[in-house]
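Dear colleague,

Following up on yesterday's call, I've attached the two folding results inline so they're easy to grep. Please treat them as preliminary; we haven't cross-checked anything against experimental data yet. The first protein's sequence and structure tokens come first.
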Amino acid sequence: MNGIAYASTKTGPLYSALFLFVASGFNRVLRVIFILALVVLASCAPEKTTWKLSGPTMGTAYHITVTDVPRTVIRAELQSAIDAELAAVNQEMSTYIPDSELMRFNDAPVGAAVEVSAHLADVIARSLDIYRRSGGAFDVTVGPLVNLWGFGPLPEPEKIPADSDIEALKQVIGSDALLLDGRHLSKTRPVKVDLSAIAKGHGVDRVADLLEARGIANYLVEVGGELRTAGVNPRGAVWRVGIERPSAGQVVQEPIQVTGKGIATSGDYRNYYERDGKRYAHTIDPRTGRPVEHRLASVTVIADTCAEADGFATALNVMGAEAALTLAEEQQLAVFLLVKTDTGFEERTSSAFQPYLEGQGR
């Protein structure tokens, strides 16, 4: 909040009282005493504390704004706790850390029941739920196909993968091979799990829970573009979030007002390559084993948790605009789509997303 505006808000009523009191007929000594008392009261009035915290995590960065922070919270301790929480998420779910919990499961033989943490079990359970609800469009075992098409750690292939190679991998992948029994996870085929399409959202939720446990009710947490908000911003208004235009990095509308929700966006417009004049997007449809070919450029989802928003944004981006809107209406998902046209982009929204637009006078 602007410092001048805040000062006037904090002390305005006190100065009004001062004017009325001094204008009365009290003697000079009493007036001096009263003025000193008002100064003390003004100096003791609580001020809102707003912090901006950031740091590296999950191959990207986090940015957090908290406001009206309780006096019992120490900034250095809070920053350290956030870093530790996100490091824990990495240790549980990264495929780049050889001894992470997830890699321990990936390296386990078929049929072995691996005990996992409550957090990892929760993310796997949520992933399986989105897998079922999306008809297989969201699949955390799709990694081998992503790698085959050159969108993983390996370089782009010199030629397009052969149909036989694609079909061979399709016989192996599939979240239906994952069995979760409480905190024991096993597989019926030699699948490898990659949680990159949901782990950032889960990390956002973990940080949000950490903030709330410390009495911080007003915050915006962002990790790699995935968000969660609560309460109000430093100006006392509902948080405003903008949706980016893929082609130019511009906001396509006045920022929508969102609080108490998770927000995630998925799109295929930044990562692709061309072979023989054809464009291959990094979004791989697990059901076909091939890059998507529809004209859906990006999907933004608003949900109760950022993990759910993150997972569904990926699933809907795989499905394409028509199928995505059909699923969104069936399951009452708040969804905003940007669809490529011959002249630019077209906006499409689900019914559950409309209240966020109506708040902006649209």
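Below is the second protein, in the same order (sequence, then structure):
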Amino acid sequence: MNTALRITAFTTGLAAAFGLALGVGHATGTGTGTAATRPAAHAGHDAGGGPADPDRLPGGLQVSERGYTLSLDQPFVTAGSPTDLRFRILGTDGEPVTAYQQQHEKELHLIVAPRDLSTFQHLHPVLAADGTWSAPTAVPAAGEYRVFADFTPAGASEGLTLGADLHAAGDLRPARLPDTGRTATVDGYTVTLGGDLTPGRSSHLTLDVSKDGAPVTDLQPYLGAYGHLVALRAGDLAYLHVHPDTTTPGPGIGFTTTAPSGGSYRLFLDFRHQGTVRTAAFTVTADGSMAPAPAATTATTATQEPATGHQH
């Protein structure tokens, strides 16, 4: 993934992945094996956690990059109606790409998020022989959405993240960026965020998971790690992806990251426990402070999805 948010991530845990999602659907992973000591960087992501490259844009801001193009079959949908989201990645020769490198147990990760960052979906579409990807989904409300394809073509030395707009017809009710504190509650689980984002400088963040007042120490692998994290920058929805750095199954999840600029970000952490993936979402400000919040945020329970993909 091409990202300007440089990071080492987690103690085994959002692949978590872009989201952002309170009140969103979730899906469970199928793997139960042991995570690797250090997962490979996801789609071109530099896991070093150092300063962002000032000459490289964050991922997801461009529909075409390095000769590859994200082509949606149908960029217009109806809010609340099930749809089969179909798209292709066109290569440097203008033809659909049909071979990819696997990253975190998948050849491509698809993220769908509205411009107001109020919801988050992490999908795993199916690839047809002709290079067409498809994933069943439904956007919950009218508005402008951003679709992110996070992938590494076969033979490429690094991956990239392309973004395209998706327009959902319906009764538009714009929402403000959610205010959150340092604690999010999800189906009886409590996730506590520690640390601050500092623009242009490496920062260490921790995410602690507990249930009924007790630390959760037996998180299950999801997408090859104990958690998966996606961050989106408010305003332009720059896509930032982080990955695990340690291998203990909770309760603490730690990662190091560098925010490319000041401003507000939405963080979406996916974690798996007792066979179910849940997402905790936070709004943070990259200036050394957290966005204010009167109460903890909430999110919905993940549900088992068909083998065709995962939706958060």
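For the second protein, one point worth flagging: DSSP finds no helices and 24 strands in the chain.

Best wishes,
A.L.
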